[in-house]
Design brief:
By secondary structure, the chain is mainly alpha-helical. The protein has one domain: Ribonucleotide Reductase, subunit A. It contains twelve helices and no strands. It is globular and about 60 Å long.
Length: about 350
């Protein structure tokens, strides 16, 4: 059996005996969650969109514009960085599956935009959101700042092999940005808007697809945190006070970027949704990410959204007495939202 650590350079191929069987089990669990975009019915959403106020229509337009680019940023980092540097064939099996899931999410958001924005110019503007919408550009710039440290963009030296402890710390910051800030904060913020509409009996199709995306993203986040745990066990010296300070600062920056997005979406406030309540929600989620990483919480906020506490991932549509949405492959067990909010 190899005595290499998870971040040691190389390309391990041997699956027996397994060094990291838990990663293999995560891969097997992910296969059970297979779903397709064709299972999501968006027809009733078109009727609902016409009922929305101008402020609500602005919010949903901004939201789908973010969706159009968010998962593409994640997928690129997955291929260019995570798969390259996590030296475990078991983990790479999971990352291969995750890449497929990100592709399904991109397809879902493409279908969503085609349905919600029938005008070709509106769709083109949504896909150019990173360039044209300041609040989305700020989130993208945050992602590039923390995740570009390995790929040679923005004048930063490219890292091909994690030879030094400094290189490995830079990789950890990339991974934690991906898990805690993008998957674990930006997307969780977006999901809250979706479930706010759903709690009011609106946009059931969007909520159905989001249920499955939500479950996938939660698994992606938990896998990444497992990688962080493994590295901490193998190389505890990497997790010094400076790294902890950087992680906490990164998550604070993520909250502020997402709040800028919330101000854009909510304006002066909508019934049951405003910037102040979204700030409290984001701070609550951010604290949970910090605690999961073994760090002290910094906000002390509680979740203000009761509609988030009602969510169950597997069959959310039961609440509205619609046909339950289920995966193609049976999944045992449940996911508790209270753990993530």
């Amino acid at each position: 059996m190899s005595d290499k650590n998870l971040l040691d350079p190389g390309f391990e191929l041997t699956l027996r005996p397994m060094r990291y069987p838990d990663f293999y089990e995560r891969y097997r669990d992910a296969i059970k969650n297979t779903w397709t975009v064709e299972e999501v019915d968006l027809h009733s959403d078109v009727t609902d969109l016409a009922k929305l106020s101008p402020g609500e229509q602005h919010l949903i337009g901004r939201l789908v514009a973010f969706f159009a680019t968010g998962d593409s940023i994640v997928a690129n980092n997955l291929v260019l960085t995570l798969y390259k540097h996590i030296n475990s064939p078991e983990a790479r099996l999971y990352l291969s599956r995750q890449l497929f899931e990100e592709a399904v999410h991109v397809q879902f958001y493409l279908t969503l935009l085609d349905t919600y924005l029938p005008d070709p110019e509106d769709r083109a503007a949504a896909f150019d959101a990173v360039e044209n919408i300041p609040s989305i550009r700020a989130k993208a710039e945050f992602c590039f700042k923390w995740m570009a440290a390995l790929d040679g963009t923005d004048g930063v030296e490219k890292i091909d092999r994690l030879e030094s402890k400094a290189d490995r710390r830079r990789f950890l910051l990339n991974l934690i940005c991906f898990a805690a800030c993008i998957e674990g904060l930006f997307f969780y913020g977006a999901f809250a808007y979706v479930y706010w509409f759903r709690s009011r009996g609106l946009l059931h199709g969007l909520a159905t697809g989001t249920n499955w995306v939500f479950r996938d993203e939660t698994m992606h986040m938990n896998f990444a945190f497992d990688v962080v745990d493994t590295v901490r066990k193998e190389e505890p010296e990497l997790f010094d006070e400076e790294l902890e300070r950087q992680i906490t600062g990164m998550i604070r920056e993520a909250v502020e970027a997402e709040l800028q997005f919330a101000r854009d979406l909510c304006g002066d406030g909508l019934p049951g949704m405003n910037t102040d309540s979204m700030r409290q929600y984001l701070e609550c989620v951010a604290d949970q990410r910090l605690v999961r990483l073994g760090l002290a919480p910094v906000y002390g906020s509680e979740n203000p959204f009761s509609f988030m506490e009602l969510q169950g991932v597997q069959e959310l549509t039961n609440f509205f007495e619609r046909r339950p949405s289920a995966y193609q492959v049976a999944v045992e067990g449940t996911v508790g939202f209270d753990e993530d909010f």
